[in-house]
Amino acid sequence: VGCLKDPGRSEAQKFTYLGVIERKIGVLVNLVDSLLDSFFLRSDQVQVLRQQADVNEILTQCVSDFQMQATERDQQLVVEPFPGGGTLWCDAGKVSQVLENLLGNAIKYTRKSDIITITASETQDRAVQFSVRDNGPGIPKEEQEKIFEPFHRMESTSRAVAGYGLGLAICKQFVRAHGGNLWVESTPGAGATFCFVIPRSGGPPPA
User: Fold this and answer.
1) Are 131 and 82 within 8 A, CB to CB?
2) To 5 degrees, how large is the angle CA 56–CA 59–CA 62?
3) How far is it, in rounded angstroms, from Cα 138 to Cα 166?
């Protein structure tokens, strides 16, 4: 911070230093967030504050937040909304966070100029299913359960994309806290579809 007060430095230099400071703060914030998330994962203390939420509002807001990021990679986000609209008794913030994590991963791992499809639909037992389908490298069968474990990262992607391997593990806990389930369907070389189901009426996490 002292360098910003130095009268001998130009405005351009100060602007550069501000950018460096901002990036370092961002790294520290992400690290603290990851440590806190790790604590909650280990202690299994996920609190769910339920309220009535519009399914399509959750869907469209998430897609809107990531539109610019997808556009920068010439990717197209295709939204298939919940037919006829509908509501969900849930912690909208946590459901949005799960969807944002899956969509963010799809944008990072799928190829440029590809299509990513985000859908909301009703299951046979009237729960709500969210899905994010990408055209990335896919996930080997032996990795499809491991990727939901804390700190696990696939060898093929760990060097290309930064991270701590906590995102999917946190998503799994958030969905379980709603009494739902999160899984992936994938064939190597043919992309991946991440799906999670939230019961309409809520309920305790599965054993």
Assistant:
1) no
2) 145
3) 19
**With the CA atoms of 131, 132, 138 and 139 taken in that order, what torsion angle do they form, in degrees rounded to the nearest 10?**
-50
Written as six digits, the tokens of 185 are 């369907």
Give the separation between CA 1 and CA 9, rounded to whole angstroms. 13
Hey, what are 149's tokens?
A: 């474990």
d(CA 193, CA 174): 18
DSSP secondary-structure letter at 9?
Answer: S
**Tokens, residue 119:** 């859908």
In the sheet that 76-80 helps form, which strands lie side by side, from edge to edge?
76-80, 115-122, 128-133, 192-198, 181-186
Find out whether 177 and 170 touch, Cβ atoms under 8 Å.
Answer: no
Q: For residues 81 and 118, what is the distance between their CA atoms, to the nearest angstrom?
A: 8
H-type helices in 44-187, by residue range? 55-72, 92-109, 167-177
How many whole angstroms separate alpha carbon 17 and alpha carbon 15?
A: 5
Measure the CA–CA gap between 101 and 96, rounded to whole angstroms.
9
**Spatial separation of the C-alpha atoms in residues 148 and 34, rounded to whole Å:** 15
Segment 176-193 mean pLDDT: 92
The pLDDT tens digits for 124-181 are: 999 999 999 998 888 888 887 888 887 666 554 544 454 445 788 888 988 998 999 9
Cβ neighbours for 162, distance < 8 A, ≥ 6 positions apart: none
